[in-house]
């Protein structure tokens, strides 16, 4: 399909009339510290139609291929329980861990994942935990201490954290954050991943009496996370950062864990869409399977060295050199999107 031209605007990149697609949130106030004007971006953004849906990387009811030897699209482990209506990663019980992972590596350079999920339980305020992690990583089905999966991972993680372990935090929970790792970083639960967070936002997704959704888009180094939690049929900007480099050939997955506190952590669907994006000849000649997960910030805030003590390899733009992560938090914004994907 021929690519269409899109122009990203500051704030929300609203969907052009007559053209299907998710609205693309542009850089927020914090992002302006280090993002250069992007200009025109050629893309044919998915509206959720089946022509863009990659079924081999999607988890859709009635969950055909889950745990099946005849069609092994998804594998699960731990406390994960499969039902006709949802995949429960953990029940509302203490000390449970579960995960589900796509069996096939993804070789798309540009993609968008829509996740229909539900976190619910009997625990009152701050008496529930711990949350869900969404993954795009090199390794799969490796249990560990980070929301039921391994630490020091290679790839991308989006954490939907419901419990504040750090009593001094100014964050309001539940809280969504993003982390990119080349294996050198460890997720610090005692600080709720503060030292390795790229960006994050508060998101009230627990115990809602309606459907809750999250969308993750990765295209040409730009990572965007959006939520639909208010039952208003519109996406709200949560995270929008550039300079992110992820290889192809990694696996999508989801995991969850409970400790002394617990919740039901359910995945209803995970739908992956291919984004039709034009790349330069130089980009097309790169072996994307050999790229190291990395982040390149165009401008760093003052005092960065004091904030972060953990190194992460970054690119500038294709050369690797040592640098640091830094945290930023963006205020949410919302925009109607009548062309939202069919679920």
Automatic annotation (TrEMBL):
Membrane topology category: Single-pass type I membrane protein
One Pfam family named in its UniProt record: Lectin_leg-like
Region annotated Disordered, chain positions: 324-343
Secretion signal, residue range per the UniProt entry: 1-43
GO terms under cellular component: COPII-coated ER to Golgi transport vesicle; endoplasmic reticulum membrane; endoplasmic reticulum-Golgi intermediate compartment; Golgi membrane
Key words of the record: Disulfide bond, Glycoprotein, Golgi apparatus, Lectin, Membrane, Metal-binding, Signal, Transmembrane, Transmembrane helix
SUPFAM superfamilies assigned: Concanavalin A-like lectins/glucanases
MF (Gene Ontology): D-mannose binding; metal ion binding
Top-rank lineage group of the source organism: Eukaryota
Coiled-coil intervals, chain numbering: none
GO biological process, one term: endoplasmic reticulum to Golgi vesicle-mediated transport
InterPro entries: ConA-like_dom_sf, Intracellular_Lectin-GPT, Lectin_leg, VIP36_lectin
Residue ranges occupied by any L-type lectin-like domain in the UniProt entry: 51-275
Compartments where found: Golgi apparatus membrane
Protein name: Lectin, mannose binding 2
Organism of derivation: Oryctolagus cuniculus (Rabbit)
């Amino acid at each position: 399909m021929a690519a269409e031209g899109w122009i990203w605007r500051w704030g929300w990149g609203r969907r052009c009339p007559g053209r299907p697609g998710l609205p693309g949130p542009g850089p927020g106030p914090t992002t302006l510290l280090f993002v250069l004007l992007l200009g025109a971006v050629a893309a044919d953004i998915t509206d959720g139609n089946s022509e863009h849906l990659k079924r081999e990387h999607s988890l859709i009811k009635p969950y055909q291929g889950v745990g099946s030897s005849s069609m092994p699209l998804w594998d699960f482990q731990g406390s994960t329980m499969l039902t006709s209506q949802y995949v429960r990663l953990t029940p509302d019980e203490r000390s449970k861990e579960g995960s589900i992972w796509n069996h096939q590596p993804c070789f798309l350079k540009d993609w968008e994942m829509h996740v229909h999920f539900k976190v619910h339980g009997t625990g009152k305020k701050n008496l529930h935990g711990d949350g869900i992690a969404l993954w795009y990583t090199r390794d799969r089905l490796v249990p560990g201490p980070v929301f039921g999966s391994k630490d020091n991972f290679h790839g991308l993680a989006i954490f939907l954290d419901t419990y504040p372990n750090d009593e001094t935090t100014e964050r309001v929970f539940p809280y969504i954050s993003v982390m990119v790792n080349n294996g050198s970083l460890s997720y610090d639960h005692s600080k709720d991943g503060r030292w390795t967070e790229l960006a994050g936002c508060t998101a009230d997704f627990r115990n809602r009496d309606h459907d809750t959704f999250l969308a993750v888009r990765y295209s040409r180094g730009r990572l965007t996370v959006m939520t639909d939690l208010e039952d208003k049929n519109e996406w709200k900007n949560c995270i929008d950062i550039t300079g992110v480099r992820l290889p192809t050939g990694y696996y999508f997955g989801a995991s969850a864990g409970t400790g002394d506190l617990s919740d039901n952590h359910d995945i209803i669907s995970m739908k992956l869409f291919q984004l039709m994006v034009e790349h330069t000849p130089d980009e097309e000649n790169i072996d994307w399977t050999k790229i190291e997960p990395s982040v390149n910030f165009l401008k760093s805030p003052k005092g960065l060295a004091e904030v972060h003590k953990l190194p992460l390899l970054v690119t500038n733009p294709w050369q690797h050199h040592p640098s640091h992560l830094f945290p930023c938090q963006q205020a949410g914004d919302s925009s109607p999107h009548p062309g939202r994907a069919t679920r």
